[in-house]
Amino acid sequence: MSKISIIIRREYLTRVRKTSFIVMTLLGPVLFAALMLTPMWFATMEDEDIKQIAVIDSSQLFVQKIPDTEKYQFTYAADVKLEDFKKNLSRTEFFGILYIPSYIAYTPSGVEFFSYKQPPSSLTMHISNAIEKEIEVEKLKAHHIDNLENILKSIKTHISIRTFRLSEGGSAEKESHGGLNMAVAYIASFLIYLFVFMFGAQVMRGVIEEKTNRIIEVIVSSVKPFQLMMGKVVGVALVGLTQFVAWIVFTGILVVVVQSIFISDLTKEALQQAGNMQMATGQLPAELTEKAQGVISMFRSINFGVLIGSFLFFFMGGYLLYGSLFAAIGSLVDTDADTQQFMLPVTVPLIIALLVMINAMKNPDGALAFWFSIIPFTSPIVMMARIPFGVPYGELALSMVLLVITFIGAIWLSAKIYRTGILIYGKKLTYRELWKWLTYKN
Questions:
Q1: What are the φ/ψ torsions at residue 211 (nearest 5 degrees)?
Q2: 283-302 average pLDDT score
Q3: Contacts of 420 (CB under 8 A, 6+ apart)
Q4: What pLDDT, on a 0 to 100 scale, did the predictor assign at position 404?
Q5: Segment 325-351 mean pLDDT
Q6: d(CA 246, CA 305)
Q7: Which of 276, 267, 285, 198 is nearest to 237 (CA)?
Q8: Strands across the sheet with 112-115, in order?
Q9: Would you say residue 277 has pLDDT above 70?
Q10: How far is CA 110 from CA 58, 59, 100, in A?
Q11: Mean pLDDT lowest for which of 35-44, 238-247, 365-374, 401-410?
Q12: Mean of the per-residue pLDDT values for the chain?
């Protein structure tokens, strides 16, 4: 067994046996499942209180025009002064006062709402939509069109645009779903950022710890500093992959179990009814079948083979690139506090990649997304934001090749810093001194 393999095995076994690794491996799926299920749980929670809203309509255009809902009921007050009502609001049952001025048709921003608590956005949106619709109708009435109400009902149309991506030459087409693509792009890119930063920091702290304990002096008497750095970086990468796979498996199991236990009775009844209908008619209801086909079509629009393969490659490539840099930083300092002066040049490209990721999800084929998905220091994050939308294989291959070349060069440069830095203690280092180490020929 080579010395690098021995170091990899030591790094891997040492870290996976730590209590912190075991705790985080078990706790991580709970946190991820909570992140996935909590929004669903909150979405099912509804405010059962009915809010009474007093309406003072000085224009007299919207009396009985704002429709009541299950949550909001509107009462129109007549012959009431706004200032008097505001002073006595706490002694009434009303949640708030909606004031519509007489000049609303000319100044739409003149509508005001008064309450002791912040009104829900759904309430303000409901009021805005109702008033906008009524003003539009009143303006149309000014044109004296007969049977206007029926005409407005007949012209209501909802447009749903289906998008397709054509192959070269337009011989084949594939339906695309922007919402799902953006969600997958965001999750994949953010996971790479999170793992690269988290496991890179582990490498740096490991080097600092061994350097502080002077264990490093014993180790480098048996192996070369480069072998030690490579073994440490690759060993931590395998630890990261192990934890990542464990999180995916455990999170999936946890989400399925929680959903199966806490699934609502209403959903169970709906599924039961659908099952009964299927047994009676031999086929699923048309609406349910259409929705199921829509979901299947959405997931088929993503090439999961390319997505998963690219994720593993860019995760490993990005980690090896930044992990070697973090190892070099760890060899330069004696404590965590001293790392700040060297962390900025390493973290800035990662932060820029996160900012460009947002642009890449909106315009995956734009110049900004293209160049930052090719530049190796940002490509692991930005390219993953483009892949769900479809990336030409030539661009993907170019990005991968440049990333491989760059992380080999980064490891070579980091090794030159590492072999000197790990044996220096108590000295304040500068970038000028680092340059000297990099330019040493031996």
A1: -70, -40
A2: 61
A3: 437, 440
A4: 93
A5: 82
A6: 20
A7: 198
A8: 72-76, 51-57, 96-100, 112-115
A9: no
A10: 11, 12, 7
A11: 35-44
A12: 79
Give residue 3's region: left, alpha or beta (phi > 0; psi -120 to 50): alpha
Identity of the amino acid at 9: R
Measured CA to CA, the distance from residue 381 to residue 191 in angstroms comes to: 9
Single-letter code of the amino acid located at 327: A
According to DSSP, the β-strands at 51-57 and 173-176 are unpaired
Q: How far apart are CA 375 and CA 382, in angstroms?
A: 9
Q: What residues contact 67, with CB distance under 8 A and at least 6 apart?
A: 130
pLDDT higher at 27 or 432: 27
Sign of the C-alpha dihedral computed for residues 143, 144, 148 and 149 taken in this order: positive
**Bridge partners of 114?**
97
CA atoms within 13 A on the CB side of 407: 26
For residues 74 and 127, is the Cβ–Cβ distance under 8 A?
Answer: no
As a whole number of angstroms, the distance between CA 297 and CA 271 comes to: 21
- pLDDT, tens digit, for every residue of 165-202? 666 666 656 666 677 788 888 888 888 888 888 888 88
Token pair, residue 235, equals: 């060993």
- Tokens 């790094």 sit at which residue? 11
Q: Is 63 left (phi over 0), alpha (psi -120 to 50) or beta?
A: beta
The beta-carbon contacts of 406-410 under 8 Å, at least 24 apart in sequence, are 406/321, 406/376, 406/377, 407/317, 407/320, 407/321, 407/324, 407/376, 410/320, 410/321, 410/324, 410/325
As given in the structure block, the two tokens for residue 341 are: 């002066």
Q: Beta partners for 73? A: 52
Supply the Cα-derived Rg of the chain in whole angstroms.
Answer: 31
- Residue range 37-74, pLDDT digits in tens: 776 676 666 666 788 999 988 888 888 888 888 888 99
**pTM of this structure:** 0.67
